[in-house]
Amino acid sequence: MLTQDRYQTMLIEKRASGVALVTLNRPEKLNAINARMHTELSTLTLDAEEDPDVKVLLVTGAGRAFCAGGDFSGQQDSPAMGGGQTMREARQIVDNLLDCTKPVICAVNGYAMGLGANFALLTDIVVAARSATFADTHVRMGIGAGDGGQVIWPLLMGVNRAKYFLMTGDRVSAEEAERLGLVNFVVDDQELMTKALEIAERLARGPGRAIAASKVPINKYLKMVSNLVLPLSLSLEGANMATADAREAAQAFREKREPKFTGR
C-alpha cells in the first residue's frame, strides 16, 4: 500500500479521484537522493501498483528542483556508498517502474539530474516546466551512466545523440528536451501542476484496464531492452565507483571545485 508511514523522503497525497500525488521532499538538498530516498524510489511504484485506491501516480519535487541526482555531500548517507544493496535497488527502481501497469506521470520542476532525470524519463508521460533542465550527470562524477540512462535516452532521442549527452553530461533545456523527444509537454512554471494534474485526472477517469492494456506491451519492450542493458551498465557503474576519478569527483563536489580527472 502507498501510505505516508512507509515514506520519510516523500510526501504522499492520495486524492479521492484515484490520483496519488507523490512529492520528493528534500528541498534543502534540491531533492538529491540519499540512501533513504534511493530505497523509497525502489518501492514507490510497487506500492502504487498494489494499492487499489491508486489509479494514477503523479510524481513531482518540492521547492526549486525535481531531483538534483545523487547526494554526494555526505559519504555515509550517499547511495554511491551503498555497494551491492545500492545496485540491487537501482535495478528495482527501473524494473518496478516499467512493471507498473498504472499510468505514471512526472511533473518536472527545475533540475532533473542523474537518477532524477532517468526516473522522470522512464515514466509514461513527462510534463516539464519551462525552467526544467535535464542531464545524466554520472560521467561528471567519474562514474558510468547507469541507473537507466543507457536504457531510455537512446530510445527517446536516438543512439548517437544519447551517447553524446551520456558521455559529456551536458544539460538539456526543457524546450530542447521537447524537441528531442524526451518530454511530452513544456508549460510555464506556474502551470506545471495544473497541466500534470489535468492529465492525471483525465486518465483516472478513463477505462483503467484499457489504459493499462495500451501501455503494458510498450513497457514490455522497454523491459526487454532494460534486461539486456541494465545489468551491464550497473556493473560498470559499480566498478567505476572504486576508481580514482570517482573519488576525485566526490571530493571536488564537497569542496565546490571542478574535478581534475586522470582517467584512473
Could you say what the CATH architecture is? Alpha-Beta Complex
Instruction: Indicate how many domains the architecture comprises.
Output: 1
Query: Structural class from helices and strands?
Result: alpha/beta
Largest sheet: 6 strands, mixed
Strand content: 5-15%
Determine the CATH superfamily.
2-enoyl-CoA Hydratase, Chain A, domain 1
Overall radius of gyration: 17 Å
Largest beta sheet: strand ordering = 1-2-3-4-6-9
Number of beta strands: 9
Q: Name the overall outline.
A: globular
**Order of H and E elements:** EEHEHEEHEEHHEHEHHH
Task: Report the average pLDDT across residues.
Answer: 95
List the helices and strands and how they pair.
Blueprint: E1 10-14, E2 19-24, H1 35-50, E3 56-61, H2 83-99, E4 104-108, E5 111-113, H3 115-122, E6 125-129, E7 133-135, H4 149-157, H5 159-168, E8 172-173, H6 174-180, E9 185-187, H7 192-205, H8 208-240, H9 244-255
